[in-house]
Amino acid sequence: MSKPKLTDTLEFPSDLNVTKSLFGVGVVGLIASGIGYFLEHDQFFFSYLVNFAFFSSIALASLFFVLIQHLTRSHWSVAIRRIPETISSNLWIWGLFLIPVLLGMHSLYHWTHADAVTHDPVLQGKSPYLDTSFFIIRQVIYFALWSFLGYRLYTKSVEMDKTGDWGLQTLLRRTSGPGLFLFGITLAFASFDWLMSLDPHWYSTIFGVYYFAMSFQVLFAVLILMVLFLWKKGLLTNTIKKGHIYDLGVQLFGFTVFYAYIAFSQFLLIYYANIPEETVWFLERLNGGYEYLAYFYLFGRFVIPFVVLLPKRAKSNFKIVGTISVLILASHLVELYWIVMPVLDHHGFHFNWMTLTSFVGLGGIFMGLFFRKFKQEKMIPVNDPRLGDSINKH
């Protein structure tokens, strides 16, 4: 393990005060959405859910990334690992933003209506799982586990910065092993609860992997944009190098293919089987204007990124990977909108301003929480024994 040669300032500049601005924007967005609640409360909850699922996917993918890096003792990612560590460490706070979803369950989830369950044999069969109290208990379990993992991995990494105790690596790996197993189960069930149960008559056994594939693809887009932002501010320019962007570009390309494989597998099996209770879900989302959203995210998060990132040089071109990352983020939001909104707007696509204000509100808070914690500690894990290899190999 080579000794790192650090020439950058490792603290986030105190005069670069983005936190207050982000929190301010977030509060304004949430207030505007709150006003919308009194105008169209059903629309408010659906718009909120789209954006909650969007930012939660980034936080959860960050946690998975940290878990897998510790478990595999990865070298390449050490220099950038503090970014996803910081994001996932805020999951215990982010869980509070699930409360509006719980308060809006009656508007969001048809299976919460007792009269609907009484007259529907399908809902009666699923009632042991699709139960309001059990739903809330599950959410508490999910976020308790995720919060514990995110907070523990972050605090022990920071402790290694301060003490230089390399023995903490063993603790991090021992946490990551069972943590990864429990994370996979809870992520799958959370995706069932938040998104798939919006239409309780429909189900897909691959939906948990589908949500994971979406989330992990978009994480690499977020990491690329975060690194480019830090470079633009003159930060970590000699620590996070061009090779790291290339590695992130490779991962982004790889998980673009993985996402397409999972999404197409889900569609193809349902299309081929042609069972009415399964195909109706896609039928609603491929008519009434929703088909244009499907075309957008199909090209935006697979066709264009695949073609553009296929050449080796493209993965090292900052403008190219930055542009593709923005496109993938936009496509991810559109795809979640495409999944959620047809439940509310059965008769066709209808954009509502609360989707935008909820995005601004939750996004401002999400990024504000990140930068608030990111500037409290070193921007990289300075005493990780693999840091030198991560920097010098590039």
Low-confidence stretches: none
Helix/strand-derived category reads mainly alpha
Task: Kindly report the average pLDDT value.
Answer: 93
The overall strand count is 0
SSE order, one letter for each helix or strand: HHHHHHHHHHHHHHHHH
Helix content: over 70%
Number of individual domains: 1
Count of DSSP H/I helices:
17
Coarse morphology: globular
Alpha-carbon Rg, integer: 21 Å
The first-to-last residue Cα distance is 14 Å
Q: How much of the sequence is in beta strands?
A: under 5%
Report the biggest beta sheet as strand number plus sense, adding barrel if it closes.
none
Brief digest:
This protein is mainly α and 394 residues long.
How is the secondary structure organized here?
Layout: H1 19-39, H2 41-72, H3 82-89, H4 91-94, H5 99-103, H6 105-108, H7 114-118, H8 121-126, H9 132-163, H10 168-194, H11 207-232, H12 242-273, H13 276-285, H14 290-309, H15 318-340, H16 353-374, H17 387-392
Helix pairs in contact: 1-2, 1-16, 2-3, 2-9, 2-10, 2-11, 2-15, 2-16, 3-9, 3-16, 9-10, 10-11, 11-12, 11-15, 12-14, 14-15
Describe the structure.
- The protein is an all-alpha fold.
- The chain is globular.
- The longest helix has 32 residues, at 41-72.
- The protein has helices at 19-39, 41-72, 82-89, 91-94, 99-103, 105-108, 114-118, 121-126, 132-163, 168-194, 207-232, 242-273, 276-285, 290-309, 318-340, 353-374, 387-392.
- The chain has 17 helices and no strands.
- It has one domain.
- The two termini are 14 Å apart.
- Helix 2 (41-72) packs antiparallel against helix 10 (168-194), helix 2 runs parallel beside helix 16 and helix 10 crosses helix 11 (207-232).
